[in-house]
Specification:
With 134 residues, the protein is of the alpha/beta class. The chain is built from seven helices and five strands, in the order βααβααβαβαβα.
């Protein structure tokens, strides 16, 4: 499965850990392709530098060494969402034929997008745990 990771999931996983961090570790050990678009990558870097300047370089450098598939962004907007800031993420997911967007953004989850699937970290974590029978 090709999963496009949204910025808020990266922030949660790499700054706070918790369930998002645990989920990210589970995904690294799976056969799923974890996509990070140029748009998401730039947004993640900007948020790190703005909110956690002291550790932003270390976190950003570490994250770039992990098994993400870094990919370009869509040359044009695709789809329609209530929050215009989410359209580039949806566009990138559609452009790269992602099967899923992993996002903690309530607007994405409530948008009733037919394709790709949209899961929050908590939803995907619970699903993966249920599949393992734990």
């Amino acid at each position: 499965m090709r999963i496009l990771i949204d910025t808020n999931v990266l922030v949660s996983a790499f700054v706070f850990g918790g369930k998002a961090g645990t989920l990210m570790n589970m995904l690294f050990e799976s056969s799923h392709e974890l996509l990070v678009s140029d748009y998401v990558d730039a947004e993640f870097k900007a948020i790190l530098e703005m909110k956690w300047k002291e550790k932003s370089e270390k976190v950003y450098s570490l994250y770039h060494k992990l098994p993400f598939v870094f990919c370009g962004s869509s040359p044009m907007p695709m789809g329609n969402l209530r929050d215009a800031k989410d359209i580039p993420v949806l566009s990138d997911a559609l452009f790269h034929h992602a099967d899923m967007i992993l996002s903690g953004d309530k607007d994405f989850i409530e948008a009733e997008i037919e394709r790709p699937l949209v899961f929050s970290p908590s939803m995907l974590y619970d699903y993966l745990i249920s599949q393992q029978g734990l």
